[in-house]
Amino acid sequence: xxxxxxxxxxxxxxxxxxxxxxxxxxxxxxxxxxxxxxxxxxxxxxxxxxxxxxxxxxxxxxxxxxxxxxxxxxxxxxxxxxxxxxxxxxxxxxxxxxxxxxxxxxxxxxxxxxxxxxxxxxxxxxxxxxxxxxxxxxxxxxxxxxxxxxxxxxxxxxxxxxxxxxxxxxxxxxxxxxxxxxxxxxxxxxxxxxxxxxxxxxxxxxxxxxxxxxxxxxxxxxxxxxxxxxxxxxxxxxxxxxxxxxxxxxxxxxxxxxxxxxxxxxxxxxxxxxxxxxxxxxxxx
Length: 285
Prior knowledge:
Elements (H helix, E strand, L loop, with lengths): L21 E9 L4 E7 L7 H5 L9 H6 L1 E7 L4 E7 L6 E6 H8 L1 H15 L1 H6 L9 H13 L1 H7 L5 H24 L1 H4 L6 H17 L24 E6 L19 H18 L1
Parallel strand pairs: 3-6
Antiparallel strand pairs: 1-2, 3-4, 4-5
């Protein structure tokens, strides 16, 4: 029997022998659409052997070596932007950016929220949820009011959040797994956002028609020339240069600190996805 779908070759790798890296937890769960197999992974103490080989400091690099062999990517995390990266050491260097709203669009959560809110308005669930009393209280009578209201509307809530939502939850899970990888590729390789060669031709033709139509209706007056401002360089592919990523530490440990009007908790995903990519490349070579 093949166990490739579980990420292993044989059942012997899942049988406890003292040297296992992963163990099957004897738990299989399903929500009616997807199936979960629960595994336990051995906790690693300290850095592994692969990371000890690449324990580098700034003294290990020279300026000529960085300029000729590596592609320096200096990035700094933020709130409105998950990262803003400057590519290269030149004055007119490339700038790549991924906003927080762009990240949540990659996960599919914004589209799902719009769809869910529209469905709530049709079924009347939004009215029920907006009138739920707050359970955050020290007064017994208010908490009893919250319990009674929840029990009275429990059937309607369970019917709305039933097994039909299992597919949407699975798609959101796939989106959260896919978005950090897409973000890491955007940083190191540009993706279609910055590399125009990877964009579809249909979008290009549509944009050209729109630009041509706008040019016919625009006034013929020439705009006044303003002072020359700094402008980021266009995307330039460097396949032979090794990406050398330099992190700004301003957001380390502050990623989950909430600010009004700003979503938090995204910055750590980018660093972990880059570390996973680096580990995969090290194992491959």
